[in-house]
Automatic annotation (TrEMBL):
Keywords: DNA-binding, Metal-binding, Nucleus, Repeat, Transcription, Transcription regulation, Zinc, Zinc-finger. This is C2H2-type domain-containing protein. Gene3D superfamilies: Classic Zinc Finger. It holds the Pfam family zf-C2H2. GO terms for cellular component: nucleus. InterPro entries: Transcr_Reg_ZincFinger, Znf_C2H2_sf, Znf_C2H2_type. It is found in: Nucleus.
């Protein structure tokens, strides 16, 4: 299969949506929607159809707060919640709230285990189309996100954002208990265990607990030596010697 050709075909949103996902674009995540919107369909339309499509793209609805314009009023109303902070859609399972119904729809897959987006190359399934799009770059080797400082390239935008903090020194994650700042949320979560005393990693032999997985890996368990000795003991006996009965 020509994966690069597949991705090119999907970038205009038609083949990808109608033949692979059979999904309403409203329920697709923002990353993939942005990819679809950025690609004109003129290469698949006649001149008259392309002209009609272009006219339909006129943005008529303007946000009174930031002046951003939208083609449909419903899109404007969704956008306004960015300013108001309104999150009217809540998850019945965990109570998490969302600004858009589509975001709640995607979130619910965490509870249901549904993974409707499947890689046509390796068969791996995903909960979001954007995650599948990022995964496809593993097969193609594509790295479209480039660091403007050192030119290092990445296959995911989020990885580039984290990398840029190396250059900017930005540390957006702050410990609410001691004020220490971190460049990555994962490092903040590890740090918090100092305050909470949480030790989620435990040795299966001696049951000693650790706050970091790296500490568990470096753990010198005394039970491991005795376990290895017990396994080795039968091998030390001579196979030709049998127990004498008196």
């Amino acid at each position: 299969m020509d994966v690069a050709r597949f991705l090119k075909a999907t970038s205009n949103g038609q083949f990808f949506l109608s033949h692979c996902f059979k999904a309403d674009p409203e329920v697709l995540d923002d990353d993939w929607n942005q990819m679809i919107k950025s690609q004109p369909f003129s290469d698949t339309l006649t001149d008259s159809e392309a002209a009609s499509h272009k006219r339909s793209q006129k943005k008529l609805y303007k946000c009174p707060m930031c002046s951003k314009t939208f083609q449909h009023n419903t899109a404007l109303q969704r956008h306004i919640t960015c300013h108001t902070g309104e999150r009217p859609f809540d998850c019945a399972e965990c109570g998490k709230t969302f600004r858009q119904k589509g975001s709640l729809h995607i979130h619910m897959r965490k509870h249901t285990g549904e993974k409707p987006f499947s890689c046509l190359v390796c068969g791996k399934n995903f909960t979001q189309s954007g995650t599948l799009a990022a995964h496809m770059r593993i097969h193609t080797g594509e790295k479209p996100f480039s660091c403007s400082v050192c030119k290092k390239r990445y296959n995911e935008r989020g990885t580039l954002v984290r990398h840029m903090r190396v250059h900017t020194g930005e540390k957006p994650f702050t410990c609410s208990l001691c004020g220490k700042r971190f460049s990555e949320k994962g490092n903040l979560n590890k740090h918090k265990r100092i305050h909470t005393g949480e030790k989620p990693f435990s040795c299966s032999l001696c049951e000693k607990k650790f706050s970091l997985f790296s500490h568990l890996k470096n753990h010198k368990c005394p039970g491991k030596k005795s376990s290895e000795a017990a396994e080795l003991q039968p091998q030390l006996q001579c196979p030709n010697v049998t127990e004498q009965k008196h």
